[in-house]
Design a protein that fits this description.
This protein has 321 residues and is α+β, with helices and mostly antiparallel strands. The chain has one domain: BirA Bifunctional Protein, domain 2. 37% of the residues lie in helices and 22% in strands. The protein is globular. The two termini are 13 Å apart.
């Protein structure tokens, strides 16, 4: 149980960080917005499970999904004419428990019209450096690696060109056997979490760019051999902190990706949430060229304060809520 002083310190720490975030965006003319927590559509991503509830009574009850991100609402606002926006958003994901996970957490998500993901990376770095300075941690060095460079340097495999047998051999060296049923992306995700992340410098901002096209999610795909996703991630030390895209704006392609997600979920006997038809309709009307990023505020606050467990930060973690 936290002492009263611990509770107060954690609350003040969060409030101070939020003030810094709001001042940062106010100086840059980025509008703060507030969007719904409940939605008719859920996330189709097979790696994320939505929480849901029934709204209404009797035969009129309708299933609504607690948002896993404010992204779809933000894109609807962008399509309606808002240019640059941000939100400190409460979001929810089922099965998220642990030192760095809570089923309810806070994302800082923002979008910049007319930007690509490289320009947005610069702004993400500026915001994080601003907060590091505020927390008394000074300047951290920044390094940018491609997805392939990251794996070659830290895991000794080329994720874009090595054979599956080479990946399996690296998994075996990491102590993982009998994972023939894993997809290539699942094998790469395991290596990233178990081998690469623990080896990253502890006091460095590490940006990773040029993801495989198969990991594009909601990003556009850049032509090439092989094609790559216009996506980046940021590690603060060894902690995955932010995920950003040069956003896909093609509604038909977005629908195809949602349908592909649902097909995977069906194969795995996972729940099949409704696609967000309101998002697709907004994209058909015209989503402007934009870049967006989601940054985990709780993880950032942990790192800024030198803490290691969300229970040190949250006044009411999931088992006390």
């Amino acid at each position: 149980m936290k002492s009263d002083q611990d509770w107060l310190s954690a609350l003040r720490w969060r409030a101070g960080a939020y003030q810094q975030v709001r001042a940062f965006f106010e100086q840059r003319g980025v509008l703060e917005v507030e969007t719904p927590v409940l939605s008719r559509g859920g996330t189709t991503d097979p790696q994320i499970e939505s929480l849901s509830c029934l709204v209404g009574t009797g035969g009129n009850a309708e299933r609504r999904y607690l948002r896993t991100s404010p992204e779809f609402f933000h894109k609807r606002l962008l399509a309606a004419g808002v240019t640059d926006l941000f939100e400190l958003a409460k979001v929810f994901r089922d099965g998220e428990f642990g030192a760095r996970h809570n089923p309810e957490f806070t994302l800082l998500e923002w979008y910049r019209s007319g930007w690509d993901h490289y320009r947005l990376m610069d702004e993400v770095g500026e915001l994080v450096q601003c907060l590091l300075n505020w927390a008394g941690q000074g300047h951290w060095p920044v390094r940018t690696l491609s997805f392939a460079e990251l794996f070659v340097e830290y895991a000794g495999v080329d994720p874009l060109h090595d054979t599956r047998a080479a990946l399996d051999a690296r998994l075996a060296a990491a102590g993982v056997m009998g994972m023939d049923s894993w997809s290539r992306d699942e094998a790469l995700d395991y290596l990233r979490g178990a081998v690469i992340e623990p080896a990253l410098p502890t006091r460095q901002l590490t940006f990773v760019v040029d993801f495989p096209a198969s990991q594009a999610a909601l990003a556009r795909i850049l032509p090439g051999d092989p094609p790559l996703a216009a996506r980046f991630e940021l590690y603060l030390g060894q902690v995955e902190l932010a995920n950003g895209y040069h956003e896909l704006t093609d509604a038909a392609e977005q629908r195809r990706r949602f349908e592909a997600d649902l097909a995977v979920r069906g194969q795995r006997s996972q729940p099949l949430p409704r696609m967000d038809e309101a998002l697709l309709a907004a994209m058909e009307q015209g989503l402007p060229d934009c870049a967006g990023v989601a940054l985990g505020m709780d993880r950032l606050l942990l790192a800024l304060g030198g803490a290691t467990d969300l229970r040190q930060l949250l006044p009411f973690p999931h088992d006390q809520a």
